[in-house]
User: What shape does this take?
Amino acid sequence: MASTVHTLPAVLSSLALVQAREKAVSAELAQLVASEESIQRSLARLRAQVPSLDELLIDADLLKTRVHSTAKTADRVGGRVRTLDDEMSRIRQAADRVAQVTELKSSLAALYDAIERGDWEAAARHCARVMAIPTHVLNGNFAARAVPTSDLPLPPPQSLQAARDTLLYNFQTHFDKAAAARDAAATSRFFKLFPSVGWHTEGLEAYSAFVVDLVASRATTSAKPSSPMYFVASLTSLFEAVALIVDQHQPLVEKYYGSSAMRPVVSKLLDACHSSLSTLFEAWDEERQMPRKLAEVTTSTTTTPAPAATAPQGKRQIPPPVEDSIDPREIDKVLSDFLPWLAVGLETESDLTSEDQQNDVSDPEPVPIDTSLIDSSACRSTVEGVLEKYYLPLESWYLRTVIDKAHRLAQPSTSSGPMSTTLPDDVFYVLKVALVRLLTTGSGTTVDRTCLTIKDIISRDLVGALKRKMDDIYRPGVAGARSEKGERDARAVFVLHLNDLSLSASHLERLSAELATSPVIDQNFLDGSQGGGDMKKTIGQLGTEVSTMRGTLKTSVEHLFSHTARPRLRTLWPDTYKDVTYLLDDEAYALAEQADLVRKRFTKTWEAAAEPVREKFNEENVRLFFGLMVDVVVRPWERYLMGLRFTDLGAIRFDQDLRFIISYLSSQVHASIGLRERFTRLQQIATLLNLDAEEDLDEFYNGSGIAWRVSIAEARAVVALRV
Assistant: This one.
């Protein structure tokens, strides 16, 4: 450090630092010297404790020696005790093994003795006792040496298997004889014995063959094939016999064979029913001449002719109906006849599965029913095949034909109120019948496919046909060539079609909601893979077509508006404000209030534009049409006002005109079109025009609490209109 100090101030500074450090060190040393006395006293106390600690150390060494000796003795004793326990355990195991082998030997002897005597219950009991012996004992070397005798020379496993095979043969033989003789007591007796000797599967197979034969003997009907109820009665008789047997025998089967033991039996019954069902289908196919009907339906076509657009209301010419080679009523009768007996089969399958899987009532969370047995059954496949082959094309043709006929025979409704025809009511009555009939099939696949087809039919044959008719009325080159009366009649027909379309959308929305909550779904569908919840969603999807229909409706209303009201409203504001000004003094204000030109001219023009459809449109179409009219009024009015000038009295007069027009339109149009919202900007413009001259615009705009729809730039432009 000295080498870096070259000036007197630096030397003095360094010297001061050294002196400060010296003082600190001296203070620390003085503190240590002062505490030496207490340190010495503490050391003296510690030295006084040394003899006591030495004595404790000696005592600890003595205790350690004694404990070590005792631990060694305890370890030797424990080892001897463990050895003794092992010996006792081996003795007990040996005694148990001897007792089990003795039991095995005596039970095998008793088993064969019971077989020779034909005492099958005793034989089953002894066989069960032998089978209850642990496998390692049965297959052990000791049993192989101790059990065989001159009468039973085979090893125990082979002797047991031979006895079981003998019992199986005898049980099957006696069971078959009892089944053939319809001896209920004997069949029940031997049916109970199969599981006790380990032949569960074989017992269920024998029982399945028995109940299949029993069902075949019971499922008979006295009706003739030509009878309308023959096929329903035959199938009902068959499945009633199946359901009765399952209901009566299931408790016995599950008692001796365990829970779910009825499933393979039900599967065998369904397979047997499949054969009968196929035979019935073939007979029905031939008796009802279904191939011919299907061929005629496949080759038949439907058309929806549009009536003349210029036909006067109430005198429209109905085109002659197209003669079909097949009567729709005949197809409706076929569908109504054969769907019930198909539903009988599917419903009985569902009942069998639900009975086979009854949930424990004490279970707070029941397990959903497993429908895999139904879904994989041959019966289900056959029914699904018939539905796909016949039901879907027949139902589709029937609906298209009925809709086509409803178009051709539609007449103006006689009910008071807006104009409409019988078309929507006729179509949706038949559609509801068809959908209820569809749900009774109990087939989720068929419901899915048919609903898609119905949506397509509604879109093409109902909505599409109405749209084509409306397009033909105002197609290019036609509208301008009509006379005034022809134009009026064409407009009436167009309104009629619009009302039909609106009513159809309402009918479809109501129908889909009604069927989605209908008990028919819960009655015909299990809560399984294609359960009621899925079907409710599928039926509810029909309602999605409503949005498409209303989109078409809105487009068509806009089309009519463009040809009727828009030309009248195009010059509304120039005509209304002709010779009208808002540059008013007291005298001009009084004259303007007396003349009231804006109100009178607006009312006249509006009435002229709305008159052609006011009493003819239904509520929904009125709302759409007047909504378009209001839009055509509001935006051009805003633009027109920006070219005017206002005095204070003129601004007041404009506010009065605006309030009158809003009040007038409120009495004319439906509240749901949002009239107040549409006029919000105009009301804010009136507020700005009536703003006090002394009031600052920016302060008012930002502090008024108004939810402004007018921007600040537009507000400045409005205020600039004041004179």
